[in-house]
Write a structure and sequence with these properties.
The complex is a heterodimer of chains A (285) and B (291).
Chain A (H helix, E strand, L loop, with lengths): L2 E7 L5 H12 L20 H8 L8 H18 L3 E6 L18 E7 L2 H11 L4 H9 L4 E2 L12 E2 L3 H9 L6 E5 H6 L1 H12 L5 H10 L2 H11 L26 H17 L12
Parallel strand pairs in A: 1-2, 1-3, 3-6
Antiparallel strand pairs in A: 4-5
Helix pairs in contact in A: 1-9, 4-5, 5-11, 6-11, 8-9
Chain B lengths: L1 E3 L2 E5 L7 E2 L6 E5 L11 E2 L3 E4 L2 E6 L3 E6 L3 E6 L5 H19 L3 E10 L2 E7 L5 H10 L3 E4 L2 E7 L2 E4 L5 E5 H6 L16 E5 L9 E10 L7 E5 L2 H9 L10 H14 L1 E6 L4 H15 L2
Parallel strand pairs in B: 2-4, 4-9, 11-17, 17-19
Antiparallel strand pairs in B: 1-2, 1-3, 5-6, 6-7, 7-8, 8-9, 10-11, 10-12, 10-13, 13-14, 14-17, 15-16, 18-19
Helix pairs in contact in B: 4-5
The chains are: A alpha/beta (285), B alpha+beta (291).
C-alpha cells in the first residue's frame, strides 16, 4: 500500500513514542533504531518539505497562502508515494475557507493518539519550560495556535490546535479520512492490544511477536537513557529532557486541586466520552 | 538595464531592487506566455518542472515563470497580481534557476565581506542568516548578497558575486537592531517582512570566498562554532544548494563544489534565538574569522 498515514495528536500525547514504535516495527532485522534517526517522514508543518515541492521559500508567503498550499502538497506526495508515509501532525483537523480540509486527504488515513489532559498539562509545562497554570489555560483556549507570530519567521508553519477538547473532537469527527484512535493510557497499560489495533488499521502485516518486539524496543526507560547519552534533536533548548517520566497519572504529583477542577470543567464532555472520567466524574487515571 | 550576480540584465519590467547598468545585456526578462509544461523534465511537481536548460515555476495567484538556457526569463503574470509580488519571486527562486543554468553554484545564503574575503552565511529558513547579515551591516561590513548566493570557480578559487543590494528582514529583526519599522516598505502586502537597502555598504565586485558558516537550528544553551573538515564540507554545500538538478553539467557542478570545499573554511554555528546568544555568536564568528 502507499499514501499517507497521519500520526496526529495534541502535543505531549505520545506521538513521538508511537513514531519510535513504528520505526522499530519497520526496521530491518539486524537494524538498531536510534531516536535521532526515526523512520517516519517528517511533520505536516515542516517548511522544508513544503518549500521543496512548491519551489519557493514559504517565508515569502502569508500564513493563509501557506494553508491553501499544504493540503495540495501532501495530496501530491500521497499520490506519488511508492510506500506509506508516516507524517506527524499537531494541527487540529480544520477546514479552509473553501470548505476543503487543511489536511491532505488523498490516499490518507490517520492514527489519532490521545492522552488524559491532566497528564498533558504537566508534560506540556515541562516541554516549554512554563508554569503549569499557563499550560492548563492553553489547553482550554479555543484559539490556541503554534507558530503564529507575524513579526518573525517561525521554524514551522502555523498550526491551529484549538482547545484540547476541540482538537480531539475535530479528529474524531473528521469525515474525509478514516481515523483510528489510540489512547496513551492503553499504550501503557494494554500495549499489545493497543498497538496491534493500530497496526491492523494501518494495514501492515506483522505478527504478534513482531509487534511485541517493537513495543519492547520502544520502552520509555530505554529511550530516556538514549536521550541522556546522545541527546534528542527534537528537544527544545530550554527544557532539560524531552522524555520526562512517561507515566500515567503523574498529574497527581503536580496539579493543584484548582487546576484539576479547571481542566475537568473545560474538557468534561470529551474526558467523559473517551473514558477519562468515571461515573462519579472522577479521573479514571 | 540592470546588473546583478555579474550579469547585465535587460528587463521589460522595472526592477528597482537592482543596481543599474549601461553595458550590453546578457539576460533578457520579458512578459509573455509560458509553456504549460516542459519536455523531458527530470523533476516535476504541480508547481515546479526542471529539465535540461528549462525551468518552469508556478506561483499560485502571482505568476508563472519560464527560464530558458541561462539567457531568458519569461513571466506570465496573473491578472490580479501585484508587480511587487511578481518581482519578489523573480529575484529569488527564478533568478537562482537562471544562474544554475549558467553554471553558477547557487546557495541559500547571505554573504558579507570580512578582511577582503567573502563569508557565506547559509542555513534553512528562519535560521538567522539575514539577521546576522544585518549585524554585520550595522558593524560597518560590506554586504555582497542576501538569500541568493551565486558562486563561480576560477583557477581553483571560489568567487561570490554581488547580488541584490537589499536585505529582506522581518519586523523583529528591524526592531531588535534598533531600526524604525515604519521607515521601510514590506516586500509583500500581508507580510511583516521588509526591504532594507544596503547600497551604501555593498560590494559591487565579486570577492574571493574565504569561509562558509552553516547556521543550525537552536537546540543548545550555549553557542558553539565548530570547524568542519572532509566530506562534511561537501555535504553542507549540497544541503544548501538551490536545484542542483537544474544544472546543465552535473560533473562540472560536482567539481566546482569540490573546489569550493577544498579552498574554503567551513563552520557549523549553533545558537538559539535569545539575544544574548545571537550577540555572543556574532562576537565568536568575528574573532574566529579575524584570526
Amino acid at each position: 500500500m502507499s499514501g499517507i498515514i497521519w500520526l496526529a495528536s495534541y502535543p505531549k500525547s505520545g506521538n513521538t513514542w508511537f513514531r519510535i514504535f513504528v520505526s522499530n516495527l519497520l526496521k530491518e532485522a539486524d537494524e538498531e533504531i536510534k531516536i535521532n534517526q526515526l523512520k517516519t517522514d517528517g511533520i505536516f508543518s515542516s517548511r522544508h518539505i513544503l518549500d521543496r515541492y512548491i519551489g519557493i521559500e514559504s517565508s515569502n508567503l502569508t500564513m493563509e497562502e501557506i494553508d491553501r498550499l499544504r493540503p495540495k502538497v501532501y495530496n501530491h506526495l500521497a499520490q506519488s508515494a511508492k510506500k506509506e508515509l508516516f507524517v506527524k501532525v499537531h494541527d487540529a483537523y480544520t477546514y479552509l475557507e473553501d470548505g476543503l480540509p487543511l489536511l491532505g486527504t488523498v490516499n490518507a488515513k490517520a492514527i489519532y493518539i490521545m492522552r488524559n489532559p491532566l497528564d498533558v498539562a504537566v508534560s506540556f509545562a515541562n516541554h516549554w519550560a512554563r508554569d503549569i497554570a499557563s499550560a492548563v489555560n492553553n489547553l482550554g483556549k479555543d484559539s490556541f495556535t503554534f507558530c503564529d507570530r507575524k513579526h518573525r519567521l517561525e521554524e514551522q508553519t502555523r498550526q491551529i490546535l484549538l482547545s484540547w477538547s476541540q482538537h480531539v473532537e475535530s479528529w474524531m469527527e473528521a469525515r474525509e479520512i478514516p481515523v483510528h484512535a489510540i489512547r496513551y493510557e492503553d499504550m501503557k497499560l494494554k500495549p499489545l492490544e493497543a498497538f496491534q489495533g493500530a497496526v491492523k488499521f494501518i494495514g501492515l502485516d506483522y505478527t504478534e511477536e513482531q509487534i511485541q518486539e517493537a513495543i519492547d524496543l520502544s520502552d520509555f526507560d530505554k529511550v530516556k537513557e538514549e536521550e541522556l547519552k546522545d541527546g534528542f534533536k527534537e528537544r527544545p533548548y530550554m527544557t532539560e529532557s524531552f522524555f520526562r517520566k512517561g507515566q500515567v497519572g503523574d498529574w497527581k504529583n503536580h496539579l493543584t486541586e484548582e487546576q484539576v477542577e479547571k481542566i475537568i470543567l473545560d474538557h468534561y464532555d470529551i474526558m467523559k466520552k473517551y473514558g477519562y472520567l468515571d461515573d462519579q466524574d472522577k479521573p479514571v487515571y | 538595464m540592470y546588473t546583478a550576480f555579474g550579469l547585465n540584465i535587460e528587463s521589460e519590467i522595472e526592477l528597482p531592487e537592482l543596481l543599474t547598468s549601461e553595458s550590453l545585456a546578457e539576460i533578457i526578462i520579458a512578459l509573455g506566455s509560458v509553456p504549460e509544461h516542459i519536455q523531458n523534465s527530470s523533476e516535476t511537481t504541480p508547481w515546479l518542472e526542471i529539465g535540461k536548460g528549462q525551468f518552469l515555476l508556478r506561483v499560485d495567484g502571482i505568476a508563472k515563470y519560464y527560464v530558458e538556457n541561462g539567457y531568458k526569463i519569461t513571466i506570465e503574470q496573473d491578472k490580479q497580481a501585484d508587480m511587487r509580488d511578481v518581482r519578489l519571486f523573480l529575484l529569488n527562486t527564478v533568478i537562482a534557476a537562471l544562474l544554475i543554468q549558467r553554471d553558477y553554484v547557487v546557495l541559500h545564503g547571505a554573504a558579507v565581506v570580512i578582511d577582503g574575503k567573502a563569508v557565506v552565511i547559509a542555513g534553512a529558513s528562519g535560521s538567522g542568516k539575514s539577521y546576522f547579515a544585518m549585524l554585520f551591516y550595522d558593524h560597518g561590513y560590506n554586504l555582497l548578497t542576501d538569500e541568493i548566493c551565486a558562486i563561480k570557480v576560477r583557477d581553483g578559487k571560489a568567487f561570490v558575486y554581488p547580488g541584490i543590494p537589499q536585505l529582506n528582514v522581518w519586523h523583529d529583526t528591524l526592531r531588535e537592531t534598533n531600526k524604525d519599522v515604519n521607515s521601510y516598505q514590506p516586500i509583500r502586502q500581508g507580510l511583516e517582512k521588509y526591504g532594507f537597502k544596503v547600497q551604501n555598504q555593498f560590494s559591487a565586485q565579486e570577492i574571493e570566498m574565504g569561509s562558509f558558516i552553516q547556521m543550525n537550528h537552536y537546540k543548545k544553551k550555549t553557542v558553539t562554532l565548530n570547524q568542519k573538515t572532509g566530506g562534511k564540507k561537501f555535504e553542507r554545500l549540497m544541503r544548501n544548494s538551490f536545484f542542483a538538478e537544474a544544472t546543465n553539467d552535473k560533473k562540472q557542478h560536482f567539481y566546482h563544489c569540490k573546489a569550493i570545499s577544498d579552498s574554503v573554511c567551513f563552520y557549523d554555528l549553533e545558537c538559539n534565538q535569545k539575544m544574548d546568544q545571537i550577540n555572543s555568536a556574532f562576537d565568536i564568528i568575528l574573532k574566529e574569522l579575524q584570526q
